Amino acid sequence: MTVTNPDAATPATSAAATAAALEAATAEENTGSETDDKNAAPAALTVEELTAKLEAAIGHSRTWESRAKANSTAAEKLAAIELEKLSDTEKLQKQLADLTAERDLANGSALRSTVAAAKGVPAALLSGSTEDELNASADALLAFRGAVTPPANDAAASGAKGTPIGSAGAQLTAAQLTGMSAAEIVKAKADGRLSGILDKK
Question: I need a surface site. Which of 21, 50, 123, 152 has the fewest CB within 10 A?
Answer without folding.
Answer: 152
